[in-house]
Amino acid sequence: MGNFKIGVPRALLYYEYSLLWIDFLEGLGAEVIVSSPTTKELLDLGVKSAISEVCLPVKVFYGHVMSLKDKVDFLFVPRMVCVEKGAYFCPKFLGLPDMLKSSLSPLPPLIEPTIDVRKSATNFKNAFLEVGKSITSNSKKIYCSFIQAQKNFWLYSAANKLEEGDLNQLQINQPINKSSKGEGISLNVALIGHSYLLDDSFVNLNLISKLKKAGVNILTAEMVSKKEIEKQLKKLYKPLFWTLSKKTVGAALYFLEKKIDGIIHLSTFECGEDSLVGEIIRQESHKYPSVAYTEFVFDEHTGEAGINTRTEAFLDMIIRRKIYESNHT
Ligand code: SF4
């Protein structure tokens, strides 16, 4: 099977694990085909093929699967259940391979390892080693490929973390030009939410480039260490048991504590997890009135004009406050 093409949809957990998945599969000699970045056509394909009740990211995933299915011999769709003690992925990830098989046909065969470390501490590694066996009979190659891919993944994950000093650096107030437009003011804004919303510029309607164009220093949950996130989560009345939301909430609490200028939470309509998480962050944000907080909710009908207006209004509000504060201190 080494010469076969394996399709990896550029959606959902691709944005968390692509480095590990692709390095591993390529290390075994497979040709990995990643679907192209999301477009309107691709989203339309997903909307047509998925049931209407599912969230936007799952519809996007369907679109990517549709765009790949006739170009590859296999599709890589892991069933992600649990990667840490006491926390789980949303049920959509558990049922993703079944949802695809029951609603899209014909489909190439799925490579669908179940990742569930509740079964055993070595389940994560073993699931990959099992996948490897269906690609090559060379067990040394499988093992080395997994170890190398995992090492690269960890190194990459550790590389972008903020040090305490970095954040202090960001918080140093630049000399404020008191022009009403706020030129010269430095703005530190955190974007938090699922990586498949933040990193897919079609889905978030180019929010990151809009903020960069406005000169905003963008902070994300990826920059916060796992240790810091765990520390922040201890502030909550009850533990959270969703792996992805833990990262979002922990990072939000960290940025609130550091009193950065603002936080934008990207969420999706039809996501139970996001509706609860949004409420937790909103309530916590009341304790830090100097940090502006807002939530942008996305679905397939969200328009770019609306996001532009809300982004401008949000930044305007922060700038006006900074100018006011600089005039009264
Ligand atoms: S966590 Fe929410 S947005 Fe993500 S797949 Fe589940 S329902 Fe969809």
Question: Residue ranges: pLDDT <50 for 5 or more in a row?
Answer: 171-178
Give the radius of gyration: 21 Å
Number of domains: 2
Please report which band the strand proportion falls in: under 5%, 5-15%, 15-25%, 25-35%, 35-45% or over 45%: 5-15%
Helix content, binned percent: 40-55%
Q: What hetero molecules are bound to the protein chains?
A: iron/sulfur cluster
- Tell how many strands the DSSP assignment holds: 10
- Largest beta sheet: strand ordering: 2-1-3-5
Mean pLDDT: 90
Q: What count of helical segments does DSSP give?
A: 13
What overall geometry do the principal axes of the alpha carbons give? globular
Name the quaternary structure: single chain
Q: Which fold name is given in CATH as the topology of the largest domain?
A: Rossmann fold
Gap between N and C termini: 69 Å
Quickly give the structural class: alpha/beta
According to CATH, what is the class of the largest domain?
Alpha Beta
The main pleated sheet reads as: 4 strands, parallel
CATH architecture of the largest domain: 3-Layer(aba) Sandwich
